[in-house]
Amino acid sequence: MINNQMDKNYMQGFFADAKGASRLLCGLLLAGAAGLSAAQTAAISGPSLPEVDKSVATAPAGPVVTMAPERFAELDARAPLNQRYPAGSINSGDVAQKALDEAKEDREAVNVRYVIDQRACYRKFMVNACLDEAKDRRRAAEKSIKQVEVEANTYQRQANVDERDRSLAEQRAKDEQDSARRLQEQKDKEAASARKVQESNAKNREVQQRIDQNKDLPPDYRIREHEAKVRQQQAEDAAKAPERAANAAAREQRIKDAEAHRLDVERKKAENERERAERKKRQEPPATTAPAAQ
């Protein structure tokens, strides 16, 4: 029993050592291949950032990324997004949209940085540890970006909800005003219709009252009444005819008197002008004549 247990422990240790050796061997082979590929790439492209960018764009690990080296250097040098937009700093729609735009740029830069870090890891001996560190850095960067994105998206959603509620409230108020206006118009129409009905009923009653009052009178009573009024008016006009004639004669006489007065004034004015001209002529000294030549 003891021997069997010892044999079992021995075999487990042996396979464990073999597995570790296999892992170590595979790691060395991968590191060598990666080192060779990196060395060839460095020999062709050079170590500068633009050339590293070209190798990143053709790297098999991760998505194909294209970004100008100057743009990557600018984005990679900025502070983390959650420092540029700390919690509570997103307080308007413009700030929220700007934060989301910068988050998209930072995410692209993080992906480029991750591919560059992967390339660098394949040149090192501890490839897996280096790759894990690169993943951790990318995960931390994406986490900070995600925090800002969540806050910006939350603000935009809340702003949209507030805008929708405001629009609904405005529409509700407008509908209520329209309903009150239509109700008042309907009431005004009903009141106008009721007044017309009352006026029509009053006229009908008046007509019926006149009919009732004249029902015992002869049929030609209204005609005779009208003729009597006409005769009365003619008599009054005839009585006033002398007065109107006298007034017309007086008015005509006033017109004649006014015309005669005007003519008299013009005649006197002409006489005065003629007398003034004669006096002026008499007051002028006689003209002297020059002596005749000898």
Helix proportion of residues, in percent? over 70%
Give the overall average pLDDT. 77
Query: Using only CA atoms, what is the Rg?
Result: 60 Å
Which shape, going by the Cα principal axes?
Answer: elongated
Ranges with pLDDT <50 over ≥5 residues? 1-64
Distance between the termini: 196 Å
What is the percentage of strand-forming residues? under 5%
Structural class: mainly alpha
Largest sheet composition? none
What is the chain-wise order of helices and strands?
A: HHHHHHH
Task: Give a nutshell description of this structure.
This protein is mostly helical. It is built from seven helices and no strands.
Explain the overall architecture.
- By secondary structure, the chain is mostly helical.
- Among the domains are: 23-174, no CATH class; 224-264.
- Helices cover 83% and strands 0% of the residues.
- It contains seven helices and no strands.
- It has helices at 2-45, 49-57, 69-77, 81-84, 93-121, 127-213, 221-283.
- Helix 5 packs antiparallel against helix 6.
Properties at a glance:
294 residues, mainly alpha, disordered N terminus
Give the SSE layout:
Elements lengths: L1 H44 L3 H9 L11 H9 L3 H4 L8 H29 L5 H87 L7 H63 L11
Helix pairs in contact: 2-5, 5-6
